[in-house]
Amino acid sequence: MSYSEAFNPTIDTRVDGAVPQPEQSDQYEIGLKYEPPGTNVLFTLALYELTQNNVQQRTTVSPITYEDVGNIQAKGVEFTAKADLSDTLHVIAGCSYNDIEYQGNINTATLTARAGNTPVRSPNQLASLWVTSDVPKSVSAGLGARYVGKSYADAANDLEVPDYAVADAMVSVDLGAWAHKLEGMSLRVNANNLFDKQYVASCFAENYCYFGEQRNVTATVDYRF
Fold first, then answer.
1. Distance (Å, rounded) from C-alpha 5 to C-alpha 97?
2. What confidence tens digit (pLDDT) does each residue in 32-47 have?
3. How many Å apart are CA 206 and CA 117, to the nearest integer?
4. Around Cβ 54, how many Cβ atoms within 10 Å?
5. DSSP letter at 193?
6. pTM here?
7. Distance of CA 8 to the CA centre of its chain
8. Residue 141 DSSP symbol
């Protein structure tokens, strides 16, 4: 079990030119980890409630201005599972559900929302799956998927941003297993959005959206001594 408090001052100005009060928050969380006896499986479950006060929401881009939307509360549950299905096959899976709501009605020159509406860029569901296989000569290969649920582009929740899923891949090689002179070195290649899917990741207004990251491949060489 845990409880925490926080505050976050800001220099951003509201539409009326005033500097808002610092954002304050408190969070309650309770969690559980369980490893069934005689297995290489670990389950993790967490429940939380987070309340933010004096929240500011961006309303314009140039110049950047914000509106005071009052308090926002988020309640959610997160679940993860990690398992070694065999000596060479490993799985990590996770999912979460978030219920994020304005705590009061909002009616300003740029924002209109009812209590219970969901703030922009706040997906209700997240999920991921990653499978890794170890093959001979100290090589590992992995394939995974990430899912992001729907979100909204306006405080009134009239404009919905569809959910999306993308695939990732990875190959890792222990170079020392191939050549003694390379002892301690490893090469890792990651590919995000493997199939180069085009999608809208999020929006904070009808005409202000972010496209998702295109396919990108990264190679990393590590040396341990």
1. 22
2. 999 999 999 999 999 9
3. 17
4. 18
5. S
6. 0.87
7. 21
8. E
